[in-house]
Amino acid sequence: MTSGGAAAGLIGVTGATGQLGGRVARLLADGGVRQRLVVRDPARAPELPDAEVAQAAYGDHAALLDALDGVHTLLLLSATESADRVSLHTATIDAAVAAGVRHIVYTSFAGAAPNATFTFARDHWHTEQHLRAAGVDFTFLRDNLYLDFVPGFVGEDDAIRGPAGDGRVAAVLRDDVAAAAARVLREPTAHAGATYDLTGPTAFTLTEAAAALSEVWGRTIRYEPETLDEAYRSRERYGAPAWEVAGWVTSYAAIAGGELATVSTAVEDLTGRPPTGLHDYLAGLSG
Fold this sequence. Notes:
By secondary structure, the chain is of the alpha/beta class. It is built from ten helices and nine strands. It holds the Pfam family NmrA.
């Protein structure tokens, strides 16, 4: 495989102040790749060798034109969930194309489709369609749910609750997504037009996740299935907007429907090493 960033030209990385973007930026820096970190707050940008910093927010056309000038390949991390998420994505894609970006690598979601059960996966599908029509090369990284989030499913009473039934989820570690993204960014031409489903090595039920957490934490964690109505009622007390509550609930419903159960070899195919599974991840946390 080609080393360094020559094949990609200047790489732009959005979201470098966040968990996934920061991981990707550090991997590229470790590989001696020249990159530009496109962030809303430059004061929070990581200090990395061979990394420039440019300030721009999603949807800010003028700022994005400046920030992306000279960028060949752009990592477009999906924006934080919001009511106008798709319009922010599409406006950012349009600005990138206008700035001369030639290849956009977009972090999408497993099962992205116009009728996906998980409402946020529909947002990703609409973004993918816009990017397909934008006239530049693209690569879609369709992440499964993040394995890192599984411990956070547990409530204060040691229960995981949600309408996931006995469905399985092939959750993937953010470190593995970052490694795959960094590989694609370094050799974008080899991945033009590709869609990669990024998953863990196995798919597990939330009952199995509770058992694994029980073993690691030394106390009983249980999974209590909810109906859709129960799930909506239990989450409405947080006072979140309806679109956000729907996203929370339908992520579990997508598990129940089998939409997140497919296991892919893409992480290993791209990085040369197998992805981390639930038990190894939890063991690492306990260590």
